């Protein structure tokens, strides 16, 4: 039985933890050869080892995508090993720290914008060059529902993720004629190492996060739930889906 990503070559940035790790694991289970990037080599190599132990094929590339040359080097390494790049999930990112406007200084702004938006542009540019040459490919960004809804303390993060959504839409228009699709996932609060510190459990056992109010499904997302949507958008099943920001938010944006 053919799996969803059989014969695909996939790149996942920030694939050493959280949503990126869950995605890399799932992509490999569904037949893709997976390259993951990240800053933490120990976590990255551990993820690769788990994929290989499960019968998959993967490599780890230690990389900081905020450096203009890093994504180009990562793509080159993927192509040198496997000959092409079919799928790219630009997942790496950081939070804005929940800072209110008066607490956001230039350094905080620059750090979030550089990691979430500028690095996304660098990755897109490197991936698009390879995929245009191939005449096919799918690129996915990890956005956020906070690109669409407003909450206090998210100004910088929302700005960075709103920029990602707009970048992806513009890229979809530009790259469509070359057979390259570009989409974004806008997830709500997901249980990951990045969010864990601010997750609390009430007397009723229910977990909450300062940004998880008004989620109709009444719970946080699991990384695997986001990974499954990412897999669909990068697969051939989504062959006519491009330029879209898909909300995976438990209904938060509708509440």
Throw out a few tags for this protein.
255 residues, alpha/beta, Rossmann fold, two-stranded antiparallel ribbon, 17% strand, globular
Descriptive report:
- The protein is of the alpha/beta class.
- It has one domain (9-244): NAD(P)-binding Rossmann-like Domain (Rossmann fold), CATH 3.40.50.720.
- The protein is built from seven helices and nine strands.
- The strands form two sheets. The protein has a seven-stranded parallel sheet, with helices on both faces.
- The longest helix is centred in the middle third of the chain and has 29 residues, at 106-134.
Percentage beta strand = 15-25%
* Content-based structural category: alpha/beta
Separation, N- and C-terminal Cα atoms: 40 Å
* pLDDT averaged residue by residue: 93
Please identify which CATH superfamily we are dealing with: NAD(P)-binding Rossmann-like Domain
Rg from alpha-carbon coordinates: 17 Å
Which sheet architecture does the biggest sheet show? 7 strands, parallel
Which CATH architecture is right?
Answer: 3-Layer(aba) Sandwich
CATH class equals: Alpha Beta
CATH topology: Rossmann fold
Roughly how much helix do the residues carry, as a percent range?
40-55%
Secondary-structure element order, as H and E? EHEHEHEHEHEHEEHE
């Amino acid at each position: 039985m053919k799996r969803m990503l059989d014969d695909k070559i996939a790149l996942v940035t920030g694939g050493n933890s959280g949503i990126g790790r869950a995605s890399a694991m799932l992509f490999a289970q569904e037949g893709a050869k997976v390259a993951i990037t990240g800053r933490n080599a120990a976590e990255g190599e551990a993820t690769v080892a788990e994929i290989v132990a499960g019968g998959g094929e993967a490599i780890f590339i230690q990389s900081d995508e905020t450096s203009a040359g890093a994504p180009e080097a990562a793509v080159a390494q993927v192509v040198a090993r496997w000959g092409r790049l079919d799928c790219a999930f630009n997942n790496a990112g950081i939070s804005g720290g929940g800072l209110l406007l008066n607490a956001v200084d230039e350094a905080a702004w620059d750090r979030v914008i550089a990691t979430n938006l500028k690095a996304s542009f660098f990755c897109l540019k490197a991936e698009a060059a390879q995929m245009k040459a191939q005449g096919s490919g799918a690129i996915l960004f990890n956005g956020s529902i906070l690109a669409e809804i407003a909450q206090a303390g998210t100004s910088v993060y929302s700005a960075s993720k709103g920029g990602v959504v707009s970048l992806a839409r513009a890229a979809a228009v530009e790259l469509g004629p070359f057979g390259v699709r570009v989409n974004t996932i806008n997830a709500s609060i997901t249980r990951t190492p990045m969010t864990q510190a601010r997750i609390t459990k009430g007397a009723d056992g229910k977990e909450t996060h300062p940004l998880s109010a008004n989620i109709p499904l009444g719970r946080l997302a699991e990384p695997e739930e986001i990974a499954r949507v990412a897999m669909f958008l990068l697969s051939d099943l989504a062959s006519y889906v491009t330029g879209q920001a898909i909300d995976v938010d438990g209904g938060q944006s509708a509440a």
